[in-house]
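Take a look at my tokenised protein here and describe the backbone shape.
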Amino acid sequence: MSEVPEYLSDWITAQRWYGGKGRSPRFERIGGFDLDDPTGEARITIHLLLDRSAPAALYQVPLTERTARFPAIDHALIEITEDERGVIYLYDGPHDPACASAILRLILDEGSVRPDELGVPARGRPASADPPLSIRSSRVLSGEQSNTSIIFDTETRDGHPGVPVICKLFRTLHNGENPDVVLLDALTGAGSTVVPRSIGHIDGQWRDHGEPSGVAFGHLAFAQEFLPGVQDAWRVALRAAEDGEDFTDRARTLGEATADVHTTLAAALPTREATAAGISGVIASMRQRFEQAAAEVPSIEHHREALRAVYERAEASVWPPMQRIHGDYHLGQVLAVPDRGWVVLDFEGEPMRPMSERSMEDSPLRDVAGMLRSFDYVAGSVSRSRPGVPVADWASAARRAFLDGYIARSGLDLRANRSLLDAFEIDKALYEAVYEARNRPNWLSIPTAAIERLVERATATA
């Protein structure tokens, strides 16, 4: 182990991706590795820093050292120090083109790095055997929070503009595979065009005394096709709702795209039958979600008996096989790409869930329910900003069309067993109610009205 300088500790705690706000950090370097800069102008080191303040967290911090100031990235300057080389300028690595290029080249060239005493063995894994890319320039995407994303302009080997690439550097590391990497690799490998094409990733190992083997494994970075200048489905749907524009055709094709993702994942990755024990576990989590929500939003307490019946009917229903799913599915996770249609992003799952849980098989109905709730949020947002605009019918039509598209493409008749889908949608609305009560009380009426509507329908059709 090695200590971390105070200036670096202060810098880390000020970053948006640092998750220990309000605590006094205790950083120790537990590993890392060096990358080569062909120009010799920068020393590039990837540091793995363990914050031992409870709860402990492991951060990936790439740094570059230069003996000459690099004015183009002064915004990423961390500290000016001195050593035997003289004055040293220390930069946040992703902003330095030398570091950014070295990270992507490690992926494209299927490179590997050997650890030193505290080092980390790491290896680049390209998604294709011969990625025809060379790097022209790089920049860090603004607005990132939990990760840092680097955008690359590339060119083909014959000098023509190549596909833009986004490389996501995972700032907080976890033991286990990252679902975003695994699922997008599987979808790309199956030839899906409903997701960005995977370029490749970096995986690594580090010491972890909490693991039985004493070693943890995880993904360090992930590169994929970048789709610039396009809007997400939330903005597209919001504008349509504000303008009273029919959205049913687009909602139907979004349902088809969602079904394509689920069908491809079920074929490419393991699935399992929904056993009685597994179903009981899911229903137990739904009941627990209600207890949490009722404690924070007392107005939903009167639904207790009705929801008990909803959960009983859902538990007795016929469940589709459990499989890998998106896990955090809503309109903001989908792009509207001209001449290509809908493209689904960000398969990491719910950020607050442990990585091990996010990598488990789940019901595809959870994704379907998430998107249905997202349409409801479009209507709620419009009602707040433009009172009097009739959006309830717009949302109902979009929800029906989405289900039509999903059912037609997947062959799974969700309406034949509506009580099961209702249970998942109510569960999502309960999650939203807790979130809004804590963060945006003025929005609380959106999920509570949905719970009222869904419970009433479930009771009427029982």
